[in-house]
């Protein structure tokens, strides 16, 4: 008569051994993917997006969560860093770097530090990289930075949201214009947290209301409305 108990124990041992071997092989094969991205729900948080989020929040913290101001002498070197390393401006005096609107230099600095590479148009002016991202989207080219209308896309961590700072600016605007962008660092309970530079003369956080399907709800946004969402596939 066959010993069913012994067969059962052997089967268990074989199953455990086989499962362990399969797990090892799958992990080894996919090691680069596992290192490169962290899956959150159905979205892959890549190194670039994770860096963008973390670096923006680190800068926000370094500004005392928005309590330190640009006239604080301890922050003047930080502003100069945004201009030089982000926007590539090296020939301005420190006073001019403080006096000029440095919000685009801030975003450029965070994107470059996060690994934006040559795909992003780093600039002292937001309109430079906004226009380029919209062009990339309309041409459907290989550049990973693409600008969409807010009503077209669900907002995600790592997106860059833009609004005008003058009348007459829209998604279809060309050339240079006054605008502002912030980086989406978190989304919870129908609200997106964004971090931007030169907001209240500091690095500050702005709450952006969302619709039930996760898009920007411009009906609840005061003043100028958001007109672009720059997404990336880095």
Coarse morphology? globular
**Largest sheet, if any?**
6 strands, antiparallel
Number of helices: 7
Query: Could you tell me how far the N terminus lies from the C terminus, measured between alpha carbons in angstroms?
Result: 63 Å
Return the domain count.
Answer: 2
* Widest sheet: strand ordering: 3-8-4-5-6-7
**Low-confidence segments:** 1-5, 25-44
What does the radius of gyration come to?
23 Å
Q: How many strands in all?
A: 8
Percent helix: 25-40%
Structural class: alpha+beta
**Helix and strand succession?**
HHEEHHHHHEEEEEE
Beta fraction? 15-25%
Calculate the mean pLDDT score and round it. Answer: 87
Description:
- By secondary structure, the chain is an alpha+beta fold.
- The chain is 39% helix and 18% strand.
- The protein folds into 2 domains: 1-40; 41-231.
- The protein has helices spanning 4-29, 31-36, 47-62, 76-87, 94-99, 103-114, 126-139, and strands at residues 37-40, 43-46, 146-148, 160-164, 179-188, 191-196, 204-209, 228-231.
- The strands form 2 sheets. Strands 3-8-4-5-6-7 form a 6-stranded antiparallel beta sheet.
Quickly list its features.
globular, 39% helix, six-stranded antiparallel beta sheet, 234 residues, alpha+beta, two-stranded antiparallel ribbon, 18% strand
């Amino acid at each position: 008569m066959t010993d069913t108990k012994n067969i059962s124990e052997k089967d268990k041992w074989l199953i455990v051994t086989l499962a362990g071997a399969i797990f090892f092989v799958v992990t080894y094969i996919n090691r680069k993917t596992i290192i490169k991205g962290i899956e959150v729900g159905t979205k892959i948080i890549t190194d670039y997006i994770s860096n963008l989020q973390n670096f923006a929040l680190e800068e926000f913290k370094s500004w005392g969560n928005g309590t330190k101001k640009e006239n604080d002498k301890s922050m003047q070197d930080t502003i100069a860093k945004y201009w030089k390393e982000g926007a590539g401006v090296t020939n301005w005096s420190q006073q001019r770097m403080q006096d000029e609107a440095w919000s685009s230099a801030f975003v450029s600095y965070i994107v470059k530090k996060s690994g934006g590479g040559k795909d992003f148009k780093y600039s002292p002016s937001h309109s430079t990289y906004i226009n380029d991202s919209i062009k990339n989207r309309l041409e459907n080219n290989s550049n990973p930075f693409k600008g969409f209308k807010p009503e077209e896309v669900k907002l995600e961590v790592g997106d860059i949201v833009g609004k005008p700072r003058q009348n007459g600016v829209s998604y279809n605007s060309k050339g240079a214009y006054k605008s502002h962008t912030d980086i989406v660092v978190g989304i919870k309970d129908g609200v997106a947290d964004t971090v931007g530079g030169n907001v209240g003369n500091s690095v500050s956080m702005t709450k952006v209301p969302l619709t039930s399907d996760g898009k920007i709800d411009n009906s609840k946004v005061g003043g100028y409305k958001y007109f672009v969402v720059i997404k990336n596939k880095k």
